[in-house]
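Comment thread on ticket #2218

A.B. wrote:
> Attaching the input chain for the structure job we discussed in standup.
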Amino acid sequence: MSTRLENILELIDDDQLITLLTDAVEQYSPSYAEEPAMLVFAERLRECGVRYMRQPLPAGSGPANEHRANLLIELGPQPSSMMWVGHVDTVPLIDEEDQRVHREGDILHGLGTADMKSGCAAIVEAVIAVVRSGAELRRGLTVALVVGEEEYGDGSEALLEWRTAPLTVIGEPTGLEACVDHYGYYECRLTARGARAHAALPEMGASAIHAMLAWMQQILEAGGEFSHGLTISPREIRGGAGLFMVAQQCEAAIDIHVPPGVDKAVVDELIERARETAHSTHQRCELIFENIYWAPGYANTLDDPLLEPVRQAYRVTGLDWTPTAFRSHSDGSLFHQKGSIPVICGPGRLEVAHTRHEHVSLKETCDAARLYAAMIYTACLA
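C.D. wrote:
> Ran it. Output below, let me know if you need it in another format.
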């Protein structure tokens, strides 16, 4: 490790990082209401003399839009060689007591700890250490704290209208594993329409709920037999027709995470085949589906030279370089479609995100700050 990098790493203040993360998590910031958490990060940068910009989202990009903006830091000559991206929004609160902010030893509990305010706090402290070191970047860096990732990525979409970089690091929770490949994400709405009848005479009607259950069962079974390994999650089902009535209509939402290399048309065909099978036993019902969101997956070549700074950062910080695939959805697909090489890497575990008991290791968060600082060094200084 070079002396210059050692000096940068020594300037990372673990106590301040933990304080920053705790303050950010204490601010409730679901999608479309991100400003309270964004202000915490902005204030920390301001007090440390790190210049930043606000990028307002364009009109019509969501409710309360006039108060929504990304926070951007640019260091070194532009355009940037590397961009680091993290989102400050969270999913909505499930249970105030279960998700209250509290610390138990090395573990900080609370909504947004893993997904992904810990990553945002880590990059802010890494940037502060780089600026305090006085190091002059040879190649440009952009850091973007964005809004709206937990919906459909309007913050990153706005960012990409303005800036791109050959290499993008996204701080989603991976336990600090480097995810160089990424699953695709397919969101689908199913609709079943039947015929209403008295509940005592169901044969006189056609139950939309029965048809929907048959359709969803076929999708799950087909997905389980699919050789590429889809992950299918029925997210919502609703419908009915009041007391003593056969249901006339039913709707459902299904999320499907698709391995890299699997095309959207493959998923369309799977759902259509399941629809045909279900319809064969519920011929009086109409079954239709609509793909309402598709984010293609991707696979990067491990020997791509653009990945070398990330690989070096793992080596100099003593972390294992064991590239894998990110199995969830993130903004990574948007950056890949713009020609960037995205790497998903952050503190926290995906399996606790979006749950009542979300938490993150504070040591891992501090390790993330050092890893990110090393990435800045290898990509923009060395």
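A.B. wrote:
> Thanks. Noting for the ticket: The longest strand covers residues 184-193.
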